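[step 3/7] inverse_fold.run input=structure_tokens len=306
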């Protein structure tokens, strides 16, 4: 097998002015998203956002994540939007399209600024991330949690070293994410785990599923939900190239399972999700989730990525 991509890649930051901060969302279980960045340095092979990058005529292949648009004025724009009399203090989800705690955040601190604004308005919020950098903002998060509902989902699809290295090249090790969960929970913040996507033939073995569930429970996660891999055009091509490079023996299985479809048929995925449900019950981990995150399916949802 060939070596995986290096974790750190050469990335170009383009500072831009955004016209809006809040994006209306359909079909994902919540109504509003906020993304301080466009593009994601984590470069996950399976990221569903690649499909929308393709539709927007932006790179969805191995160039994805090497150019990040930084919305330098996003916190100020957000403040203006939350100040409107028409705003009804609906939950805002940060990180539905790009990770708010990717490396760019270390330099720009836009996510931190947006959290301070949301806290000022006592606006309910949720965060989806793979970035342990989030613990830097414990002060802001703790204050926000005192003023409004706050729920954090840490995405941990697997704790297997090989699968992680080859499919999530730009992310921190799952153990670092678990340590971040411990710190957040110790600070009284509600944190769950999203075990998604589960990759057929790679991370769906019962022992690998159980390893994530046990680790989440040990870290103090308040719940865990799971979802299977989906492959839309843009994501499909890149993921299959990664599969061909590192696990060529699995290519026929994926071609059969995902033939002419983006979503795994129930006959392929339901047994795995039933296994997850059984393991959650054994280990006493709740299946509740505060935010139902599913991939957007309609073309108009490209606004999510702006």
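[step 3/7] decode complete -> sequence:
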């Amino acid at each position: 097998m060939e070596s995986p991509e290096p974790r750190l890649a050469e990335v170009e930051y383009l500072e831009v002015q955004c016209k809006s901060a809040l994006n209306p969302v359909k079909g994902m279980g919540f109504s509003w998203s906020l993304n301080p960045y466009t593009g994601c340095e984590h470069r996950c092979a399976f990221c569903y956002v690649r499909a929308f990058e393709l539709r927007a005529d932006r790179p969805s292949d191995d160039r994805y994540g090497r150019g990040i648009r930084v919305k330098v004025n996003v916190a100020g724009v957000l403040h203006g939007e939350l100040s409107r009399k028409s705003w009804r203090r609906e939950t805002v989800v940060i990180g539905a399209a790009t990770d708010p705690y990717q490396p760019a955040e270390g330099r720009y601190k836009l996510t931190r600024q947006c959290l301070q604004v949301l806290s000022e308005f006592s606006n309910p919020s949720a965060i989806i991330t793979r970035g342990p950098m989030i613990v830097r903002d414990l002060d802001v998060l703790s204050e926000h949690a005192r003023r409004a509902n706050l729920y954090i989902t840490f995405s941990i699809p697997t704790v297997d070293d090989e699968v992680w290295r080859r499919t999530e090249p730009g992310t921190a090790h799952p153990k670092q994410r678990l340590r971040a969960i411990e710190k957040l929970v110790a600070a009284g913040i509600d944190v769950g785990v999203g075990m998604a996507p589960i990759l057929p033939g790679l991370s769906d073995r019962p022992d690998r599923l159980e390893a994530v569930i046990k680790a989440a429970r040990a870290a103090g996660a308040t719940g865990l939900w799971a979802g299977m891999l989906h492959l839309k055009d843009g994501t499909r091509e890149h993921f299959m190239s990664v599969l061909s490079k590192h696990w060529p023996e699995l290519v026929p299985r994926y071609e059969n399972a995902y033939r002419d479809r983006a979503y795994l048929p129930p006959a392929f995925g339901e047994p795995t999700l039933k296994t997850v449900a059984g393991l959650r019950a054994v280990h006493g981990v709740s299946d509740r989730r505060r935010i139902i995150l599913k991939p957007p399916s309609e073309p108009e949802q490209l606004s999510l990525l702006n």
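[step 4/7] annotate
Residues 12-305 form a domain with the pyruvate-formate lyase- activating enzyme fold (CATH 3.80.30.30).
DSSP finds eleven helices and ten strands in the chain.
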